[in-house]
Amino acid sequence: MDKTAIAKKILHYRKLKGITQEALSELTGLNVRTIQRIESGEVDPRLYTLKSIADALNVSLEELLPEPTQHELNQIAVLHITPAGFFLLPVVGNVLLPFIFWMLKREEINGINRHGKDILNSQLTYSIVIGILIGAVTVMAFIQIFFPGNQFSLMFFMHLPIYMVVGMILSAIAFGILPLINAIRVSNGKKPWRYPFKIIFFK
User: Fold this and answer.
1) Is 150 left (phi over 0), alpha (psi -120 to 50) or beta?
2) Number of C-alpha atoms within 13 angstroms, CB side, residue 178?
3) What is the pLDDT of residue 182?
4) Alpha helix stretches (DSSP H) within 20-159
5) For residue 130, which of 194, 174, 79 has the smallest C-alpha distance?
6) Which CA distances in Å does 59 have to 8, 13, 31, 146?
7) Residue 119's Cα: distance from chain center in Å?
8) What pTM, to 2 d.p., does this model score?
9) What Rg, from alpha-carbon coordinates, does the chain have?
10) Which residues have a Cβ under 8 Å from the Cβ of 167 and sit 6 or more positions away?
11) pLDDT computed for residue 1 by the predictor
12) CB–CB of 84/172 below 8 Å?
């Protein structure tokens, strides 16, 4: 991250709020020397340190952060591609890979938290839906085994090829096409498209 840009923003907001370095030190739990070094641009503060300072200054973390560098944008783009792990490990790969990548990078990459939470919320939702559908197919199979000739299960399995084709198309979009489009957009400095139909697990 750009240490100088961060230092200028912290200094600006601290003076705007009329808070001394000593007062900011008490509010954040950081020692005064650390505050001085951050404001002079001597150190590259961690995101959790900036979050403490942002809370103390009553501003959002984003207001203290500079625009992401191209390297950071590229790292976020990689995060957007990780849901393709579904094709290696269905149902869990699309959640596991983004989660691991996000956990490893969330304290290093400017702006990655917002992207990571959006991706994980969507992929967890999609995995839950897939799990429910697999459960439904399993139930129908058991009904057919124990109650041969059941009209409801017979009708279900007659249409199963159609359901599978639709499922493959939706999977290609959710775990391949949309993540790839968002990776390209982020790498080019554009906002990613929001992943639709998601439950908010991470706020």
Assistant:
1) beta
2) 17
3) 97
4) 21-28, 32-39, 47-57, 61-64, 70-81, 93-105, 112-146, 151-158
5) 174
6) 14, 8, 20, 62
7) 4
8) 0.75
9) 24
10) 133
11) 61
12) no
